[in-house]
Design goal:
By secondary structure, the protein is an alpha/beta fold. The chain has one domain (8-185): Glutaredoxin. The protein has nine helices and seven strands. Helix 2 (52-71) packs parallel to helix 7. The radius of gyration is 17 Å and the shape is globular.
Length: 222
C-alpha cells in the first residue's frame, strides 16, 4: 500500500474501543499516546474471532511479534481488534493471540480505514486462487492446532481487516489492507519498517530519533 494512501490519524483517533474483560471503553489514540518515545504501536484488525483464517493469522503475527520483541525488547506494543464480542472469550482462552485485545463496536474504525466488505463471490475469491492457496497452506502449517474443529463461523462473514503501525506522535508508518480471506501483512514488510525505525538507519552513529518527521524521512519508500 502506497504511503500516499495511508489514512489521516485524525479520522480514527477519537473512535472507541471496548475492553470486554474490563467492561470499559477507551479512545483509540490512548493506545499510542501512552507509548514512550522509543516505541511503536502495531494494531491488527481481525475479521472474526472464530474463523480459521483469523486464528492462523493471529498465530503468524504473534510469531512476528515475538521476533520483534527478541530483537527490540519492549519496543513494540502489539494490539488486536475485532468487530464484536461474539467469539472473543473462546479466541482469548484458546491462546491464539496473547496480547491486548479490544472490540470496535459498530466497526467505526474499520469503516474509517476503508476496510472492504465485498459481496460473497468477491470476498470468497471464487475468481482468485489466493484464498484456496492460503487455505491449503494453513491446513499444512497448523494441522496440529485444530483450527477447523475449534472454528466458530457465526457473525459477519464479509468484513475484511488489515493493520496499521503508529508512532507515539500519531504518524502512521505502515498500513495494510487485506485483499482476500486469509490475507494479512507479511513479516518481511513489517520487519522492514521495524528495522528502519529501530535499527541502524536511525539508531546508528549514536543518533536517537526525536521527531516523527525525522523517522518518516528515513523509512524506506515504495
Amino acid at each position: 500500500m502506497d504511503k500516499s494512501e495511508y489514512i489521516n490519524i485524525e479520522k480514527i483517533k477519537d473512535k472507541k474501543l471496548y475492553d470486554p474483560d474490563k467492561k470499559e471503553e477507551i479512545e483509540f489514540e490512548s493506545l499510542y499516546k501512552t507509548l514512550s518515545s522509543d516505541q511503536l504501536l502495531y494494531v491488527v484488525f481481525f475479521r472474526r474471532w472464530g474463523w480459521v483464517f483469523c486464528k492462523a493469522g493471529a498465530l503468524e503475527l504473534s510469531k512476528t511479534f515475538e521476533k520483534v520483541n527478541k530483537e527490540y525488547p519492549g519496543r513494540l506494543r502489539f494490539v488486536g481488534v475485532g468487530v464484536e464480542e461474539l467469539g472473543y472469550d473462546e479466541f482469548k482462552k484458546q491462546g491464539y493471540f496473547k496480547n491486548e485485545l479490544y472490540v470496535n463496536r459498530g466497526k467505526t474504525i474499520y469503516k474509517a480505514l476503508n476496510f472492504q466488505r465485498p459481496g460473497c463471490l468477491t470476498c470468497w475469491g471464487f475468481c482468485k486462487k489466493d484464498v484456496f492457496k492460503r487455505y491449503k497452506e494453513i491446513e499444512t502449517k497448523f494441522s496440529e492446532k485444530k483450527l477447523k474443529t475449534d472454528m466458530n463461523a457465526k457473525s459477519d462473514q464479509l468484513q475484511m481487516g488489515g493493520s496499521i503501525m503508529i508512532t507515539p506522535l500519531g504518524s502512521i508508518v505502515f498500513q495494510h489492507q487485506d485483499s482476500y480471506y486469509g490475507d494479512h501483512a507479511r513479516e518481511e514488510a513489517i520487519m522492514e519498517v521495524i528495522n528502519s525505525y529501530f535499527g541502524n538507519e536511525i539508531l546508528g552513529n549514536n543518533r536517537s530519533f526525536k521527531r516523527d518527521t525525522e523517522v518518516m524521512d528515513i523509512l524506506p519508500r515504495k
